[in-house]
Amino acid sequence: MASLFDEWKRRFGRLADALLQPVRRIGLLPTAPADQWLDGRFEHQHRTVDYKLFVPGRGMGRPRPLLLMLHGCTQHPEDFAAGTRMNRLAAELGFLVLYPSQTQKHNAGRCWNWFLPQHQQAGRGEPALLAALTQAVMHEHGADPARVYVAGLSAGGSMADILGRVHPELFAAVGVHAGLPAGAAHDLVSAIGAMKNGPDKATLSGPMRPTIVFHGDADETVHPRNGEQVAADAVAGLLAAGERAPAHEMRGRSEGGRAFTRWTYADTRGRIAVEHWLLHGAGHAWAGGSADGSFTDPAGPDASAEMLRFFLSHPRTR
């Protein structure tokens, strides 16, 4: 079964090829600049963060979308980029992709500290650091401020949910893969409980951005009830904003044989504002990823492709 991303790319690719054919015939199409994989370091509020930045050759010279990618525990940017294969897709679509690196100094397992109150607020801790880093990269590379997104895996997915809530003025949409909802924990003990059993109740308030969620129903590290709650919070945000949010359920199977159920919730204009993908038989791993990285499930569906497809349909409008 072809992915939604492949269908979207096929339709727009045909149009682009048709428009470029006359230019190709007379040899006027310029050679695209090379992609870049850059190292960087950023300091904010007396804390320093290292990062990797993928800068595609495509779209050079005009504002491009930017995706902040937050790795899971024990991972690092190079590993996360290889496992998700996000840079390959970003090269095709002209996305800047920013990968900050957590350190063992700030968390022994290299996890983002999503479970501590000081890292669940705007203007403090890791949300402040990551938002400031994103803004600095936007400024330096001329990113489109209406198309800035955040996604992550596990602890990174949990921090992505927090960032979408506390910085809705910055991030247009959010992707959470095998993560927990913002406010599910307030210390390490409650974090372990939420990971094992699901959240008692997400307590972090704030406006919700369009959200796409992936979670395996055989995940033994982060209970799938957490993915359900992330999606439920996003739907509740739609309803609170006066949207209808009717649900649609679809069952399918990826090209790699992974069965899934996908729920979508549309706004009053008919645009899908929340997607929840439940991956049957999948564990704690990035769907459709590469074995070149850790915590990946090559059986799919391709979470990276589907997230980019979802993000591009949601520029920030307010």
TrEMBL record:
Pfam families, per database record: Esterase_PHB
Superkingdom field: Bacteria
Keywords: Hydrolase, Signal
InterPro entries per the UniProt record, alphabetical: AB_hydrolase_fold (IPR029058), Esterase_phb (IPR010126), Plant_Biomass_Hydrol_Est (IPR050955)
NCBIfam families to which the protein is assigned, alphabetical: esterase_phb
Protein name (Swiss-Prot/TrEMBL): Poly(Hydroxyalkanoate) depolymerase family esterase
Source organism phylogeny: Bacteria, Pseudomonadati, Pseudomonadota, Betaproteobacteria, Burkholderiales
